[in-house]
Specification:
Farnesyl Diphosphate Synthase, mainly alpha, globular
Length: 349
């Protein structure tokens, strides 16, 4: 393990938020960077996007109730909860013997409970601090918006903490992918909307799904990359239960649905056509479709980055681009209504 550098290394902070950087003894990271990497901050951005999406939908459906402070606080709480749950699930996977120094998990970045970067006491303390901070924010939001927020918190906490954890690890029973879809869609986005409006209309739940489907495709890609390892270790992810070929087909179907749902919301008059800005990520979706149409090759293709990772990389990049374009499209919708109050296009159904 590379020891932490005394002082600060800000050159690593942004990369730790964007990717899984690798370090060497000549340029060791500082303590903050090590914690960012250990908690997989690069994927925590997915929770931030879901929280921000919920806030933007308030501007679409009930702009008079929008609160920037509550939007930011909700996104922060979701990010802290996600980071803490990453460490919790790493703990359980290490305890169950699934993650080890030679398991596929190390390809996604350091496994804090395996690589010796921290002591077990340090990790448990850090995890506790993250989850306590998330809980404190959640309790404040419940105080502001009412006790129903506690139901959103309980549902999200149960799924995030027991994704890999005993007594009922969802990941090992083929429920992990469904759990991720529910958390990053209706629970996070719907919860963020409810906090500010105390309502949850049907269209918000539908609007939460395109990005949540993208997060789910990332998980499918991750599990496809290690399907043989998981099957050997009786880790019954949905990919293992479906089989590799069927799982690739399901992932392709989810990607198609990501583009259909925004179009349906535009046709229903919920969004302006600006929501179709997601189509700018379609070329990457075509590449994803081609990659997921065939089994993983035995040797890395010239374009492969992070081999032996294969499926997960393109799914992650596609989802990140799609998510940013989805947010931008909704922002443009909000701006158009601000400039032209009462703007309404004909509904197709």
């Amino acid at each position: 393990a590379v020891k932490a550098k005394k002082g600060l290394t800000p050159q690593y902070w942004l990369s730790a938020l964007y990717t899984m950087p690798k370090f060497n003894a000549d340029a060791p990271p500082d303590a903050l960077t090590r914690w960012l990497v250990a908690s997989r901050a690069a994927v925590v951005i997915m929770s931030v996007i879901s929280g921000l999406l919920g806030g933007l939908l308030v501007l679409v459906g009930a702009p008079e109730k929008f609160s920037l402070g509550l939007t930011v606080l909700t996104a922060l709480g979701l990010a802290l909860a996600h980071a803490g749950s990453n460490l919790v699930n790493d703990y359980w996977d290490a305890r169950h013997g699934i993650d080890s120094p030679d398991s596929p998990r190390v390809n996604y970045g350091p496994q804090a409970f395996v690589n010796g970067e921290f002591t077990k006491k340090q990790l448990l303390l850090g995890t506790g601090i993250l989850l306590a901070a998330a809980a404190a924010i959640g309790l404040y939001l419940a105080y502001v918006a009412g006790p129903i927020v506690l139901a959103f918190m309980a549902g999200g906490a149960a799924i995030l903490l027991f994704y890999s954890g005993d007594p009922f690890p969802l990941k090992y029973r083929g429920l992990g992918e469904l759990a991720v879809l529910l958390v990053w869609g209706p629970l996070m986005v719907g919860g963020a909307y409810y906090i500010q409006t105390q309502t949850l209309p049907w269209w918000v739940l539908v609007a939460s799904l395109p990005y949540a489907l993208g997060v789910t495709t990332v998980l499918f890609g991750k599990h496809l990359d290690k399907v043989d390892f998981d099957a050997k270790n009786k880790t019954n992810t949905l990919v293992v239960l479906l089989g590799e070929k069927n799982a690739r087909a399901v992932t392709r179907a989810l990607v198609v649905l990501m583009y259909i749902l925004p179009a349906a919301l535009v046709a229903a008059g919920i969004f302006l056509p600006t929501a179709l800005l997601t189509l700018l990520s379609a070329p990457l979706a075509v590449s994803l479709w081609k990659i997921f149409s065939a089994p993983k090759p035995k040797t890395p293709p010239p374009w492969a980055i992070g081999w032996p990772l294969y499926f997960v990389g393109v799914a992650f990049i596609h989802n990140r681009r799609f998510g940013m374009l989805y947010l931008l499209g909704i922002l443009l919708d909000i701006a158009a209504h601000a400039l032209w109050p009462g703007l309404q296009l004909p509904k197709l159904f």
